[in-house]
Write a structure and sequence with these properties.
about 260 residues, alpha/beta, Spore Coat Polysaccharide Biosynthesis Protein SpsA, Chain A, 9 helices, 7 strands, binds guanosine-5'-triphosphate, binds magnesium ion
Length: about 260
């Protein structure tokens, strides 16, 4: 099955989402894979922090009660027919946001590592027109989140490479805590990398080349409390190094225009 087939499948899949939901200003997206122990808490936390926002959980083929618990907590739930990975899930969410006319989309982890009260800070920066994409950075001065060993060096390499390409400091290019405006939503609805880590890193290269601006704000990050991490430190170091190559390849890709 090709990626195009998968996309067709996702489009054809019956959507449980209401067809005539009013467009809001902010869509909070939680990509989730087997997060039944944390997802409801995170949905509640987001709703408390951003009462006017719409919360969308993209359940990516979980085999546990993630979808049911998210729904019960008051989120809209998009159930993907099978696992597409965070990139595929976010692309589906951006497409949803674009079609429904949302002005801003913020991605938040469903495992509770991101602090929902920090969404306001990201939103403020974006609303002020400072940038089209605001990254919540774990290494820009706040919090004590630390990464060690090979993963740390791979992350440094990636940060330096990426900052050079996009012309602004991006200390935490793999952060999944990021808020984007309407221009980026339109771009990402069409052009969003699906491979592991490509979603976070390569997306920034695509955005930069399409003329969008990027900035970072410092955030604190909590350790994961429940569920299981999607990767281990060595594997993630290998992936991070691979991403540096992927970023190089993104530079020779055709630039999306008109966003
Ligand atoms: N839609 C979707 N979400 C996923 C997938 N894998 C992980 N996620 C979610 O993406 C978010 C981040 O994944 P994590 O495994 O926490 O990655 P991480 O935060 O870099 O790693 P830890 O620090 O170990 O938690 C969580 O909300 C996961 O549930 C997937 O295949 N599809
Ligand atoms: Mg996590």
């Amino acid at each position: 099955m090709t990626t195009e087939d998968v996309r067709e499948d996702v489009r054809a899949a019956p959507t449980p989402l209401p067809a005539t939901m009013p467009a809001g200003e902010l869509l909070v997206v939680l990509p989730a894979l087997n997060e039944q122990d944390s997802v409801a808490r995170v949905v509640h936390e987001v709703r408390r922090a951003q009462p006017d926002a719409t919360v969308l959980v993209v359940d990516d083929g979980s085999t546990d009660a993630t979808a049911e618990r998210a729904e019960r907590a008051g989120a809209l739930v998009m159930r993907l027919p099978f696992n597409l990975g965070v990139g595929g899930a976010m692309r589906a969410a951006y497409r949803f946001a674009h079609e429904r006319g949302f002005s801003y989309v913020v991605q938040v982890d469903a495992d509770g590592q991101h602090d929902a009260s920090e969404i306001a800070g990201l939103l403020e920066v974006c609303r002020a027109g400072t940038a089209d994409i605001v990254i919540g950075s774990r290494f820009a001065g706040r919090g004590d989140y630390a990464v060690r060993g090979p993963r740390r060096w791979a992350m440094r390499l990636l940060s330096v490479t990426l900052s050079g390409i996009v012309g602004t400091a991006v200390k935490d290019p793999t952060s999944g805590f990021r808020l984007v405006d309407r221009r980026a939503v339109a771009l990402f609805a069409e052009h969003y990398p699906e491979e592991y880590l490509g979603d976070t890193v390569e997306a920034l290269v695509i955005a930069h080349r399409a003329g969008l601006s990027i900035t970072q704000v410092p955030v604190a990050m909590r350790p994961r409390e429940t569920g299981t991490a999607s990767t281990n430190p060595l594997r993630s170091a290998v992936y991070l190094t691979r991403v540096v190559v992927a970023v190089g390849l993104a530079l020779i890709r055709r630039t999306p225009r008109g966003y």
